[in-house]
Design goal:
Two copies of one chain form a homodimer. By secondary structure, the first copy, chain A, is an alpha/beta fold. Chain A has 14 helices and twelve strands. In chain A, the strands form three sheets. Chain A has a six-stranded parallel beta sheet with strand order 2-1-3-4-5-11, with helices on one face. A four-stranded parallel beta sheet of chain A has the order 7-6-8-9, with helices on both faces. In chain A, helix 10 links the parallel strand 6 and strand 7. In chain A, helix 1 packs across helix 2, helix 1 packs across helix 3 and helix 9 packs parallel to helix 10. The longest helix of chain A has 17 residues. Chain A is elongated. The first copy, chain A, starts with 5 loop residues before the first helix and ends in an 11-residue tail after the last strand. Chains A and B meet through helix 4, helix 6, strand 2 and helix 8 of A and helix 4, helix 6, strand 2 and helix 8 of B. The structure holds a DNA duplex (16 and 16 nucleotides).
Amino acid sequence: MPKVTISQIARAAGVSKTAVSFAFNDPSQLAPATVRRILEVADRLGYTPDPIARSMTTRRTNALGLLLPQDIAIALANPFYTQFIRGIGAVCSSAGLTLMLVPPLQGSLLKAIPHATVDGFVVVGLEVDRGEVRLLRRRHVPFVMVDSEAPDDVASINVDDRGGARAAMAHVLAQGHRCIAVLCIESGKDGRIAEYTGTLAERLAGYCEALDAYGIAPDDPAIQIVEVPSSWEGGQAAFERIWDAAARRPTAIVAMSDIIALGAMDAAHARGLRLPADLSIVGFDDLPEARRVRPALTTVWQPVEEKGCLAAAVLVAALTEGGPIVHHRLPTELVIRESVAVPRDE
Amino acid sequence: MPKVTISQIARAAGVSKTAVSFAFNDPSQLAPATVRRILEVADRLGYTPDPIARSMTTRRTNALGLLLPQDIAIALANPFYTQFIRGIGAVCSSAGLTLMLVPPLQGSLLKAIPHATVDGFVVVGLEVDRGEVRLLRRRHVPFVMVDSEAPDDVASINVDDRGGARAAMAHVLAQGHRCIAVLCIESGKDGRIAEYTGTLAERLAGYCEALDAYGIAPDDPAIQIVEVPSSWEGGQAAFERIWDAAARRPTAIVAMSDIIALGAMDAAHARGLRLPADLSIVGFDDLPEARRVRPALTTVWQPVEEKGCLAAAVLVAALTEGGPIVHHRLPTELVIRESVAVPRDE
DNA sequence: CTGAAAGCGCTTACAG
DNA sequence: CTGAAAGCGCTTACAG
């Protein structure tokens, strides 16, 4: 049973392909009786218009692409992405668009970009630009960059990472902590922390500014900065490593993401620590989980879902109106809950 | 700057379109010098092959579609889907495929199916078949149904929902509970529980079988069966409603999904209940969160990620070999942790 | 090793 | 209200 095409329907119904096309896409162009007949024939023969052929002429796919910095399985291990995608999804639904998840192809985003049949891309967490922007331009599809360092002529959505991070660290320092472990998000490119760019660099800078305000240098021996995967397991493993190594155990952990903080928190509980008495923890993101855990996680709120919404909305606008290039920088805010206390006397 | 096409490159490089196509897709067909020249010209002119036009002739999109029963934002509120997608994503990555999330279009899956440009669909949680299967067949793309009642000639992946549910309820009954609230997953179609089909019907049947073994009828006044959205909020709200209504408060809650159980658990904590002493709770899914909460959730394990993997693998196989129609029924297993105890004396 | 030509299955001015 | 024809941008036998 080979695929049935518009020509066969046209022939069977005794009309032109034009008529068949109209019957599906713009019935008002046809006499009601004709439409009825065509649809009846199409139904009987099991015809459904080929979406690719349609895209070929309309130049529309009705899909948005989400360019992911990592494989789907890895990215979705972080609830941040789930939230973010929910934001995009909300806009997709109301715009009648579909969402394509586009992870690196054979380890390369560059390879993935040319193949995705989408009307626009939202690019998230592109840490280092190795030509992705150039390639995206060639595709002649609109794109918006989220949590990435975007050129001026590319739409972008960011948050005040630096300010948020600064507030988080300042809060911990204000409570009296001086021996602190900073759990940074792994750059993925296995690069040194010194080479951070974009979001990661901003957050790190924020932490350092707060330390600096207390006269503490980032390389102070009481401050240990480590890179960990942004996942529950990453946070858990990091806590264990730190706690076991422990020339001098930190009294507080400052994490670049909630999921890392949550992992560390659970690991600490498993070791019998009482939080926050024995160890203070602060995160970043304010995922729904942050509010639910005990002790409730003190963290930096950022509008994750809204970032997704905005990104998708910018794209949708570009598809129809082709509006101006926008740059958004959304606020962040420290949310003080229960996971940070004064350090216990040593 | 209009899009540059293969013809322009051919002209500029002084070769045929065939040669340009080969340079990108099968360079071995061309003299190395020719390839170099073509690629150089393409690079200079900013050419990138149009993926739609390519799909048009190759009849391949290199994308898998995931047909979701609800909007993306709603589905992803349930970690089950995140896990499931991670499974699909793992296979997509290794097969070099992209993943398209296809939610209902204007409230209708039927409308969404014809438009998605994918090589195959995984259909999940299709509760009632209102023609989706027929439409999918017309598309002439392979598809596999997960957690749905599939016809014999359609590949399917299910788990032992009934057995798992029976074990969960039996465990609660064995502890001595007789006053139980059953939190069912809302069918979405706003249908009555009596009209459940597929996964939901199986789980409900499993619960009832266990009750029956204890001589309890499903409509026993001590057993209340309610429908709730499968989300944290759904579980939370359900607990509050039940606790407040409370002619006779249940001593145990049996939930059809972990996320519902988790929501109920947190709501119970918020009311000052001590779990499991004051209230026992059992879930279904065994999400990663189940192990982490306190008390750790007793629940029915099912291989969520593996279902995604398998589904995608079946599709990938169908794309290349067109293998036979497979039906998988994976096992489930009650995982006893800490959230179920004997009911306190009243 | 390279090119001319047909074809993939639609949509859309345009003409009647 | 309906149809003939061109065209979307590629790939792929086929011929040379």
